[in-house]
Amino acid sequence: MSPEEEARRLDAADPLPTLRGEFHVPPAPGGPYAEAAYFAGNSLGLQPRRTADLLREELDDWARLAVEAHTRGRRPWVSYHELLREPAARLVGALPHEVVAMNSLTVNLHLLMASFYRPAGPRTRIVIEDAAFPSDSYAVASQAVHHGLDPAGTVVRLRPRPGEDALRTEDVLAFLEREGGTVALVLLGGVNYLTGQLMDIPAITKAGRAAGAAVGWDLAHAAGNVPLRLHDWDVDFAAWCTYKYLNSGPGAVAGCFVHERHVRDASVPKLSGWWGTDPAVRFRMDPDIAPPASADAWQLSNPPILALAPVLASLEIFDRVGMDALRAKSERLTGYLASSLAPVTEIVTPSDPAARGAQLSLRVPDAGGLTRRLAEAHGVVVDAREPDIVRLAPVPLYCTFHDCHRAAEALADLLGR
Ligand SMILES: *Cc1c(COP(=O)(O)O)cnc(C)c1O
C-alpha cells in the first residue's frame, strides 16, 4: 500500500470519522487538490456550516422584533449567554456557575487579575513562561504598573533549560517551592502557543496554590484541544478565546472560569458593570450592585448576541462529539503526523503525546518563505512564527490523515529530504 493509500485507509477506518463535511474548508491556494489541507486551526478555526443559520436567526429576530427580542426572541437576548453556560462548563470541566462567555481573552485576563492579582508585602511577583504570547506579557506588565510596581522586578519569565524548548514540570515546581513566598500570581498558558507544549496543569496549580499564590491559566490553545478538569484541579481562574480550536470566528466572544470557592465569596474584589448584577433585580436600575454567586458576576456589559451565536453553534459540536473522543482522535492524528514528519524536519513540540495537544511546531530555515511555498505549491496552509518556527495543527474535527500525508509530502519536497 502506498503512503497515500495508507492515509486514506486510516481515514476510512477511524472510530471517529471526520466531521469535515460540517465545516467550510477553504479551496487550496495551489497544488493538485481542490481543498486546502488546513493546519492553521490553532490560529483561526474553520467556520461550521451551521454558524450562518444561528446568526441569521438572530438577525431575523432583530428585524422582526427589534427591542422585543430581548424577551420574546426565539432565544431571548437577556438570557442568551446562559445558553452557553452548560456546554462551556462541560468543555473545560467546570460547574455551570463557574463559567461565563464574555468579552475577549485579554480583557478577561485583566478582569480576572483585577480580582486575583493582589500584590501585598513581599508577595508581589507574577510568574509567566518566557515563551508567553505577547498579549499576556503586556497584560501582566501593565498590571504591575497599575499597582505601582516595576515590571522588571515583578514579572518572572520561566525559561527552559539551555538547549531545550519545553519547560520541565519539575523545574516549575522547584521554582515555586524555592521562591513561592514572593509570588502573588502564576499565569501560564495551558498549551504553549509557540511550542505546542501541554503543561501539567494539575501539578503546577497544586504547587502554586500550596505556595500561597493565585493560579490562573490562559487556555487559548487548550480549550477545545485537550480535556480539562478546571474545577477538580482547583484552578483559581482561567480564560480562553474561542476563535482557535473553538471555531467561533474572528475575535469571537471569549470564555472565563472562576472557581466555585471564589464565586461564593462576596469579598473577592471585582470591577463591575450592570450585567454583573442579579438578573432578577437588574432592571430596577438600583445604584447598588447585587452580584450573583456565579462567574456571571464578572460580566460588565450586555453581551454581543451576534458574536455569541457562532460560539453556541460551535459548542453544540463539541457537546455532540465529546472532548474525550476528540482527544483520542487528536492523539492518533498528531502521532501520525509526527511520525510522517520525523524523517523530514526537527520537531520542537514534545514527543510525549501526554505533553502536547493538536499541534506540531517545526524548526525550519525561513519559516515565512516555506509557509508561502507550502500554500502556493501544495495547498497546505500552516502558520509561520518568524524566523524559524512553522506550526501545524492537525485539528481532529476537520483535518484528516490524508491532510497529514499531504503536509509531510509537501515538506519533504520543499525541504529537499
Ligand atoms: C491567541 C492568544 C491570545 C489572543 O488574545 P485576544 O485577546 O483574543 O486577542 C492571547 N493569549 C494567548 C496565549 C493566545 O494564544
Q: How is the topology of this model organized?
A:
Elements: H1 3-13, E1 23-24, E2 37-38, E3 47-48, H2 51-65, H3 69-72, H4 85-92, E4 99-101, H5 105-116, E5 125-129, H6 134-146, H7 151-154, E6 155-158, H8 169-179, E7 183-189, H9 201-210, E8 214-218, E9 237-240, E10 255-258, H10 260-263, H11 305-321, H12 323-341, E11 346-347, E12 360-363, H13 367-378, E13 380-381, E14 383-385, E15 389-392, H14 401-415
The structure holds pyridoxal-5'-phosphate.
Residues 104-106, 133, 135-136, 189, 193, 218, 220-221, 241 line the site of pyridoxal-5'-phosphate.
Please, could you describe this protein's structure?
The protein has 2 domains: 3-42 and 322-415, Aspartate Aminotransferase, domain 1, CATH 3.90.1150; 55-319, Aspartate Aminotransferase, domain 2 (3-Layer(aba) Sandwich). Helices cover 37% and strands 13% of the residues. The chain is built from 14 helices and 15 strands. The strands form 4 sheets. A 7-stranded mixed sheet has the order 4-10-9-8-7-5-6, with helices on both faces. Pyridoxal-5'-phosphate (PLP) binds at residues 104-106, 133, 135-136, 189, 193, 218, 220-221, 241.
